[in-house]
Each structure stands twice: as structure tokens, then as C-alpha cells.
Design goal:
- This protein has 300 residues and is an alpha+beta fold.
- It is built from five helices and 17 strands.
- A hairpin with an 8-residue loop joins strand 11 and strand 12 (207-213).
- It is globular and about 50 Å long.
Length: 300
């Protein structure tokens, strides 16, 4: 047999082995990868490892239309409705499902009224500071890496404070008894929001404002209080001869009550506490730059 013929046979033989031993992709994975631009452009029907990893990651990301029942806990969308299902089923009006004793929006986001909505929270404003009306120059900021995580105030410029004093504002869908609710989010750490909870017995006030990590879905602050401590009531203060236009109050409703805690600076501590009565100028904050006009309800 001619030498070139033998060479051709060996080439065909090893080629057939390569085809038969090439790992196959499961139908579901192949379908998911098919939508990947890099995979679709491949003439050999194979993807690079980076493309496989990217597509696999992307296929699990949550979106309201294609969540597939995945619960999420972010400022853009928070799945915990605050309802429980330990002894009875979730209220059908919520549109939620029971998971580990909680009523969770699987395929939607919790609204201000505790029901599930298909849309994400709306970004109202970004990268603004909150300056106190009474204590000139003092701005609220997130103290993420502390023992207790209580919100505090500073006079340092944002550059010296490493932008820990910058906030983003998200509006939740729906309304609670006709009132809008919001997440007040750290611009620096997007998983952190402002929330209220009880302090220890040695504190200057029984309640205070804290940095709450949404990524920790078993965070004690949320589990003990429900979600009302982080879904905030933020309202615009009517201007007066003492308070110029643009001021806001920041509060949260105490669970199982109609009382609202309002964020204020406790004189001498520079920490942010929660008052059960409406505070004075020490509980009024000025966003800079100002929030869009008409976004907030007027304080009653």
C-alpha cells in the first residue's frame, strides 16, 4: 500500500477518535450557551473556558421577567415581604411563596405594601450627602466596619471620608396606606442600607439608625424586626422661616404599631439615633445635591 495512503488512514482514524471522545454538553447547558455571542460565533461549536463561565454565571442572574423563582436581597430588589408562614400559609394577596418560614417574592420584588411586584425598585437619586439642619457641616455617614454599625456624622469632606457619606435613594413599588417607601443606600457599599433597631440599655436613646447588610438575609436586624425597619418613610419638610426648602425627615415604622422613629443627631455624641417623637432641627436633613422636586411626600 502506498505510504501516502497509510498516512491518510491514520489521520482519519485519529480524527474519528477525537470526535467520539469529545465531551458532550447537556441539552439545557447547550441551550443556554447557544445564546452567548462568543459561543454562537464559533464555527466549531465550542466555546472558550471564559465564555462558558461567563454564560453560566449570566444564566443564573435574576431579572423580574426570568427569575425562575430565585429570591434576591439587594437595593434594586428585595424579596422578603415581611410575612411569615410558620403556622399558616402566606396571604394569597401578597403573591408570595413560603420558604423557611418566610413569605418570599420568587420572581418579583417586595413593594411598600408587602406584596410582590414584577418591577425593580426605582432609582430616585444617587451620590448625595445628608447634611444636618441644626449642626452645621455635619453629614450622616455609614460606619460599616464597627462593632455595632451605628450611623454617625462627620464634618470631614467626602474625599477624606472615602465617600462613606454618599447615599443613593431607591423607591419601592406600591405604597403603604398611600405612602411611598424607600431604601436609603450607601453609594460606596451597595448592599448596605439605613435601618432602625433597638439599642443596648447603656445607649443614649432606646433606638438608633444602623447600617444593615442586605446580603446577609439572616441579619438579626431584619429577622427580629421584619422589613419595616429598612423600608423607610422619607418626607419633605415644609419650609418655614427657620428651615429653608429642601429639608427631609427620615424614619421607619415600629413593628405592630403606628409609631414612627425619626433619625436625629443626639447632641454630644454625633451618632444618629431614632426618636419616637418628631425631633426638631436635629432631625432634619438636607440632601446635597437636592432631590428631584415632587419625589417625596410632604411631612404631615
Amino acid at each position: 500500500m502506498p505510504l501516502f495512503a497509510l498516512a491518510s488512514i491514520f489521520v482519519l482514524f485519529f480524527a474519528s477518535l477525537a470526535v467520539s471522545t469529545h465531551p458532550t454538553v447537556a441539552d439545557g447547558t447547550a441551550s443556554a450557551l447557544g445564546a452567548d455571542d462568543e459561543c454562537g460565533a464559533s464555527s466549531e461549536g465550542a466555546c472558550s473556558l471564559s465564555a462558558l463561565q461567563l454564560r453560566a454565571k449570566t444564566s443564573t442572574l435574576w431579572t423580574p421577567a426570568t427569575s425562575g423563582g430565585i429570591a434576591v436581597y439587594t437595593a434594586k430588589c428585595f424579596s422578603d415581604t415581611g410575612g411569615t408562614c410558620v403556622t399558616e400559609a402566606c396571604d394569597a394577596d401578597r403573591g408570595a411563596q413560603c420558604a423557611s418560614g418566610k413569605c418570599i417574592c420568587r420572581g418579583g420584588c417586595t413593594g411598600a405594601d408587602g406584596t410582590c411586584y414584577p418591577e425593580e425598585n426605582k432609582v430616585v437619586a444617587t451620590n448625595f450627602v445628608l447634611a444636618n439642619a441644626k449642626f452645621e457641616g455635619y453629614k450622616m455617614f455609614f460606619k460599616r466596619v464597627t462593632t455595632f454599625g451605628q450611623m454617625s456624622t462627620t464634618r470631614l469632606p467626602s474625599s477624606f471620608n472615602m465617600d462613606q457619606d454618599k447615599f443613593d435613594l431607591y423607591q419601592l413599588p406600591g405604597a403603604d396606606v398611600g405612602t411611598k417607601e424607600f431604601f436609603l443606600v450607601s453609594s460606596k457599599w451597595s448592599d448596605y442600607v439605613l435601618g432602625f433597631k433597638a439599642t443596648t440599655g447603656t445607649a443614649l436613646s432606646p433606638f438608633a439608625a444602623y447600617a444593615v447588610d442586605l446580603a446577609k438575609t439572616v441579619d438579626q436586624t431584619v429577622d427580629v424586626w421584619g422589613v419595616s425597619n429598612i423600608m423607610l418613610k422619607i418626607c419633605a419638610v415644609s419650609p418655614s422661616e427657620y428651615v429653608p426648602t429642601g429639608g427631609v425627615r427620615i424614619g421607619a415604622v415600629l413593628p405592630a404599631t403606628d409609631s414612627t422613629l425619626w433619625a436625629y443627631i443626639h447632641h454630644g455624641s454625633w451618632l444618629v439615633y431614632g426618636s419616637m417623637t418628631k425631633p426638631g432641627d436635629d432631625g432634619i436633613w438636607f440632601p446635597d445635591p437636592p432631590l428631584p422636586e415632587g419625589v417625596l411626600p410632604v411631612c404631615s
